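Hey, I'm writing a tutorial for new members on how sequence and structure tokens pair up, and I'd like a real worked example in the thread rather than a made-up one. If someone can provide the structure for the chain below, I'll link this post from the tutorial.
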Amino acid sequence: MYCSEHTVPKHYAEYGRLRGYGVELGLAILKQAGIEAEARCLPWARAIQEVAAGRGIMAPVFSRTPEREAQMLFSSVVMDDPVVLVQAAARPFAFHHPTDLAGRRVGTTRASRFSEAFNAAMPAMRINEDGGPAQRLLMLLAGRLDAAVIAGGAHAVRYNARQARIPIEQLRIVSLPIMQDPNYFAIARQHPQAQALMTRINQTLRRMKQDRSLNYLLAEAQARY
């Protein structure tokens, strides 16, 4: 199971150890499905390349886009992930639509994609792709960014602010989320067992949603971060 080493606290690598509530949840679901798996955290673009080449399953941090769907099979939704825009509290500006970010320096994770409206507006932004959300928040407060895109919502902002030793009062989470991003497992269509594996995963997800164990596992894992 491949995931990003830079989507803290959902998936990340810390001193060689794989961590994150998305890692824990993904492995637990695969175990319930009878699929033995280990997690590998890589730079996001490389993780996508490994899965697209048929070498494994993408962990549930993955967003669905037409380009990715042409290459991969997607599971049913595992969880919904709010993606928020963060500003420096000392330098707020009005944000109602992604086009309001035209000409502004916006930090995000390398190779990430968001809503159709945000993706369409990105060419007009001054995008900075960096090594992680804590670094992004530090650059924001240093004035090197005008805004930071953070997946995982307020939970992820608070966690990364603590990691970067930033008082949360110095940050402003824009009340309008960029999107509620459904996250899925994904596997390359060329994988020899793609359809069989995805059928097992979807059957397991259906059962775990019905007995509410999926919600329980997600809440339990998130509480550790």
